[in-house]
Amino acid sequence: MGYDNAELSILIVGDPEMAEYHRTYMDLEGPTNVIAFAMQEGPFAEVAPYLLGDVVISIDTAEREAGEMGIDRGARVDELLVHGILHLVGYDHETSEAEALRMAERTEALLALLREMAP
What we know:
This protein is an alpha+beta fold. Helices cover about 50% and strands about 15% of the residues.
């Protein structure tokens, strides 16, 4: 992905805390599954050039979605983490159908790598 030496933070929260982040930073009500806060954008991006940003995942929503999808919670968290990381490095499924497809393909490729590495 072009980031040989990068770092990010991952925060796992419950729905109440995620709803606060969603309201405060996105001006939207209720919890969501994942929010990514990029640190490589804006006027201070050069302050920490190796810090991609923060990925916040609601474990409550992830668990609920996993049940709906018929997968285990860990697999759903993996999907959300990959989704958040892709947002941090510039992917955005909301800009166009082509970009959504590009992001979906990259997501599947990265999840396949994770499955290969799993014990």
